[in-house]
Design brief:
Helix content is 5%, strand content 49%. The chain has 335 residues and is mainly beta. The longest helix is centred in the N-terminal third of the chain and has 9 residues, at 6-14.
Length: 335
């Protein structure tokens, strides 16, 4: 991570014990089905967690420092962005066997990744100030690079029709629109301090961004990048993710261990869900968040405590803490 989290990274490299008095495994079975996939960025691993039992059922070595991951539209594969290197690696979800490693450019450091409904992969290349479009990733895997021209091109969203991508650029404090079809010059606009989280509404009409340095979230016009509305969030809003039903979003607030719930009709914060106490927040280091497909639960990766919190959206209760060994960060669900 960048400068503001260096003390936490140092702690992780020395090893992180579970927080006193807390379970690091799931307590009891659940009626939830499917599997949760976890990228362990410090352990260099990929793991599968059975959501019914709450137990880890498989773990394999991955690439160096994997961060974000994405599942294929048919849920048969999961792709890892290898932030410590220059590849996107693809594994089968059934047995975690690696089936492909796609080379990007020298020093690429891929981070954000999207496996689009069109079957193609898109990934940021932070080390090259660019993004990649990977056509037919399980076949010919043709790669096309697009420069953002911005420092710290970290996360991305892709339009439903695949014509545009948008990035958050930590170092440049910008959001960038990239035209994937015409290769017109990218458009970049400053948005807050250290914008990182990014999501696009299902109809492509609104872009949502969270800025961790500003403790704010923004509703943005995707084409002009004009900020339509700004609202406060919890402290250090790393991620913003929209509910599958399209009615709410949540931000993952690392420094106070909370989720800010945002009504997307009004783009107003409507409540705060405490996942861990402010005193625990630094020790847990809540990063990536993910909705369950039915929108009833939220999963939050607590990187330093090696846990994944499972939260009931309606009540805000933390139902279980699932295994997230090796510094779990990127997470994805298959049903």
């Amino acid at each position: 991570m960048v400068r503001s989290l260096l003390p936490l990274v140092a702690l992780a490299l020395l090893g992180c014990a579970p927080i006193a008095g807390e379970e690091t495994r799931a307590s009891g079975a659940s009626d939830v089905g499917g599997a949760l996939f976890v990228a362990g960025k410090f352990g260099n691993t990929l793991a599968r967690i059975d959501l019914a039992s709450g137990e880890e059922t498989a773990r394999v070595a991955s690439c160096v420092n994997p961060h974000e991951l994405a599942t294929s539209p048919d849920e048969r594969y999961v792709a890892l962005a290898c932030y410590g290197g220059r590849t996107v690696d693809i594994f089968r979800t059934s047995d975690l066997a690696k089936v492909k490693s796609i080379e990007l450019g020298e020093g690429a450091r891929p981070h954000g990744i999207v496996w689009h409904a069109n079957g193609d992969l898109y990934a940021t290349a932070e080390g090259r100030q660019s993004i990649y479009w990977i056509k037919d990733p399980l076949g010919a895997a043709e790669t096309f690079e697009y420069a953002s021209g911005q420092r710290g091109t970290h996360m991305l969203a892709v339009a439903p029709d695949g014509r545009h991508a948008w990035t958050t650029d930590l170092g440049s404090k910008t959001v960038t629109r990239i035209d994937l079809r015409t290769r017109r010059a990218p458009l970049s606009v400053e948005v807050g301090e250290e914008p990182e989280g990014i999501a696009l509404s299902s109809d492509g009409a609104t872009l949502y961004v969270s800025a961790r340095g500003s403790n704010e979230a923004y509703a943005i016009d995707p084409q002009t990048l004009e900020v339509r509305k700004t609202i406060p969030t919890g402290r250090f809003a790393l991620r913003i993710v929209t509910r599958p039903q399209g009615d709410y979003a949540v931000t993952s607030n690392l420094m106070d261990g909370s989720l800010t719930v945002i009504d997307l009709d009004t783009f107003e914060p409507v409540r705060t869900i405490p996942v861990s106490s402010p005193a625990e927040a630094e020790a847990r280091t809540q990063v990536t968040v993910l909705w369950s497909p039915d929108g009833e639960r939220i999963y939050a990766a607590e990187t330093m405590s090696n846990t994944i919190a499972e939260i009931d959206f309606a009540s805000g209760d933390v139902l279980r803490r699932l295994p997230g060994e090796g510094g779990g960060d990127g997470i994805a669900i298959v049903e």
